[in-house]
Amino acid sequence: MIPLVPKRMFFTKGVGYHRNKLQSFELALRSAGVEKCNLVHVSSILPPGCKIISQNDGLTELKAGQITFSVLAQESTNEPNRLISAAIGLARPQNAMQYGYLSEHHSFGETMKKAADFAEDLAATMLASTMGIELDPYVAWDERKKAYKVGKKLFVSRSIAQSARGHKDGLWTTVVACAVMLLH
Length: 184
What we know:
Layout: E1 8-18, H1 21-32, E2 38-41, E3 45-46, E4 51-52, H2 55-60, E5 67-77, E6 83-93, E7 100-108, H3 112-130, H4 137-140, E8 141-142, E9 147-150, E10 153-165, E11 172-182
Parallel strand pairs: 1-4, 2-5
Antiparallel strand pairs: 1-11, 3-7, 5-11, 6-7, 6-10, 8-9, 9-10
């Protein structure tokens, strides 16, 4: 059997509104550009050497009906004005030939920035724990370098997030954030 190891990955996000919850989810996927794919949810490992490409480049490669692996965060509400967020965080060693971590986070009452920062901190903390390092993201973050640093270890990180307020008329509101993995 040939191992399914993604070679490339891209981030995307979206929001959808509809009177039916499932259709609001589908519209959020449409907003993110991945509605035509059969999404398979995977856990949180960024393969060694996996190249991160732009959303535009990634979306052009998707085919209708394609089995598509993704780390997906989603949240929904039908409460007017309720703030919801979904975020994906990424942390990997500076050496891209080592594997990294992706984290998904979904929440109520958090801004897009707060959700994105939390997802990024979560990914960095998970990566550090695999290296036997206890990471306090508030201490390890190097603002100047825009990276986490613990001892001599440097982690590259980033995130994507989507937030929205529940529709004023009580329609279902769904937000998604995805890390979409491509096998070729």
